Amino acid sequence: MGAVALLSACAEPVDPCESEHYRGSDGELCVPWSVCEEDEFESTPPTTTSDRECAVLSECTIDEFELAAPTPTTDRVCEALTECTGDEYESVAATATSDRECADLAVCDVDQVEHIAPTATSDRVCRPVDAVKLTAGGWHSCGGSESSGWSCWGLDEDGESIIPTTTGAYTSMSAGYEHTCALDDAGDVTCWGHNQYSKSEVPGSLGNVTGLSAGVDHNCVVNDAGVVTCWGWDGYGQSTVPATLANTVQISSGGYHTCALDDVGSVTCWGRDHLGQATVPGSVGTVVQVSAGLMHTCTLSQEGAVSCWGNDLSGQATVPASLGTVVKVEAGGHHTCAVDDAGNVTCWGNTSNEQTQVPSSLGPIVDLNAGLYHSCAADNSDVVTCWGRDNEGQSTTTVSLEPVVEVAIGEYHACVRDDLGEITCWRSNGSGQGDVPETLGPAVSISAGPLYSCAVDDAGAVECWGYGYYGEAVAPDGLGPAVQVSGSKTHTCAVEASGAVVCWGRNNSGQADVPGALGTVVHVDTGDYFTCALDDVGDLTCWGDNEEDQLDIPGSLGTVGQFSTGAYHVCAVTDGGSVACWGSDYDGEATPPASLGHVVQVSAGGYHTCALDDVGDVTCWGLDSVGQAVVPSDLGNVMSIDTGLLHTCAVSDVGELSCWGRIVN
């Protein structure tokens, strides 16, 4: 027991300091441990007899990234960023905590060319040697390639869409406001279309041209010596090339100004500058492409960044922050479009004609062009898609259809029904008149009003789409199964399977008040403010507006086999194959030619009329202001016809569609 007591007396005394304190130098004073600051770490831990030691965290330099994050007791670890070699590009950008990733640059195949040069952060873009190229002008568009040939669509009042033949092959085209220029494989330029200011008369001393650009009323080219030549209107000096300009590699003609890019990436602009469109900012960097729009200009830098300046009233010069690495930029009338290195298209600026609403169906894009109010793109399968304003068909490239069995023409659009019951509409779509509902079954009847379309499907359901101020584009509830529909300026009528007629829409002249004495109707047709119906015994009845005596059916008409209402006139085919017309006849639309054969169908348009005889020939008469009454000679054996306000269409016995006149030619 004594030994135990002795050991207890000699034991080390208990430390009187609390936790997280240490004894001071006098052995009695207790001091709290230090706390490391936010930018420090604990380099030496504390003990009961010593304080902790803190050190300042390391900072990674601009050429380093944080390989290992700091902890309370360890410093951060920095490592040098990987440097991409000359055969690589930065595929993933470095961050503060991750290294950059490099990828091998694409190598163009033997049948490809470098479409877009690589940058430090974007891959090389290759395209087929002869892929489709596009150009969008004021009211027309062109596309094609050297091997496949070229085509133009849209306005053709001055022949701007009619491509002249050449001894060689065209390698590129540029569509101006109402004219077109093309470069062939010999380096020669040809222009055609509107020729005010002699813009379609090519000078004879251009040299071997390598690039060209058509503006509103002037054109510019650059030859293989880097020399630029411009001609056409020079009211703002847009065709007067600066004397200091040299070594040009690309030229772009805008509305009333011109821009050139030289071989060191510098841009020079001249011409009209009232909105600053010709004043190049100093911050554009090294430029690889320039695009002059109507009153604004955009450039693409070597790093894939877009800069725009000039008119910005619709936001066309305000580049979206969300753009990726861009490979091409296009300045249009009041909008701008760009394609990035993944082939995605982004457009911004004025959208009144939906020119900035990029279709969701676009594939990866290899070419892009912006026109006055529309845009066009070509994907890597050479499929061309245009969108935006289509009043002259500048956004309608092709219409691919099964054999056509019926055509319906509105004022600014047309629709066809094929032998599978599918409906396709084209041209103007500003009111949705071309957006065929997905819920519509196979169609058995179609009709087109000014800004809307209607169809009856094989279940008898009537659907209309587009815009109607008076409700003409909304089929009424309770409409029974229908067999035929007819839309007009402000009202619509349908024939039910029972033979009854139902009308809706505007009724200011009684055009929607169906007479109670009608028999079993087999066909109804609507004029501007009147309606006519044919029953199953060949009797015709008309009602509504009678300002031009269009309701006054001739007493000698006899049994009617088929009829058609125009804007203010009516024509009918009797069971003997003769044609009678009445109502408005200001342009001779109600005076059938005496030379008509045995007619099987008549179609009354706005102010002209066409008839189809029993041998498949078409004859037209009346107003011919835009060629709507001049029948083409290559229609084949025609099976049906339809006339609109200023145009006509015919369907042949093999389902081929032909149209002439204005709007859908």
Describe the structure.
With 665 residues, the chain is an all-beta fold. A 3-stranded antiparallel β-sheet has the order 11-12-13, with no helix packed on it. Strands 14-15-16 form a 3-stranded antiparallel β-sheet, with no helix packed on it. The longest helix is centred in the N-terminal third of the chain and has 9 residues. The protein is elongated and about 135 Å long. It starts with a helix and ends with a strand. 43% of the residues are buried. The N terminus is likely disordered.
Short description:
By secondary structure, the protein is mostly beta strands.
Largest sheet: 3 strands, antiparallel
Radius of gyration based on Cα positions: 37 Å
Per DSSP E runs of 2 or more residues, the count of β-strands stands at 52
What are the segments in which pLDDT stays under 50 over at least 5 consecutive residues?
A: 1-14
Shape, per Cα inertia axes? elongated
Mean pLDDT: 88
Helical coverage, percent range: under 10%
The helix-and-strand class reads mainly beta
Number of helices: 1
Strand order of the largest sheet: 11-12-13
Q: Report the span from N to C terminus.
A: 124 Å
Q: DSSP strand (E) fraction?
A: 35-45%
List keywords for this structure.
single chain; 665 residues; mainly beta; 3-stranded antiparallel sheet
Helix and strand layout, with pairings?
Blueprint: H1 2-10, E1 21-23, E2 30-32, E3 40-44, E4 53-56, E5 64-68, E6 77-80, E7 88-92, E8 101-104, E9 112-116, E10 125-128, E11 133-136, E12 140-145, E13 149-154, E14 170-175, E15 179-184, E16 189-193, E17 209-214, E18 218-223, E19 228-232, E20 248-253, E21 257-262, E22 267-271, E23 287-292, E24 296-301, E25 306-310, E26 326-331, E27 335-340, E28 345-349, E29 365-370, E30 374-379, E31 384-388, E32 404-409, E33 413-418, E34 423-427, E35 443-448, E36 452-457, E37 462-466, E38 482-487, E39 491-496, E40 501-505, E41 521-526, E42 530-535, E43 540-544, E44 560-565, E45 569-574, E46 579-583, E47 599-604, E48 608-613, E49 618-622, E50 638-643, E51 647-652, E52 657-661
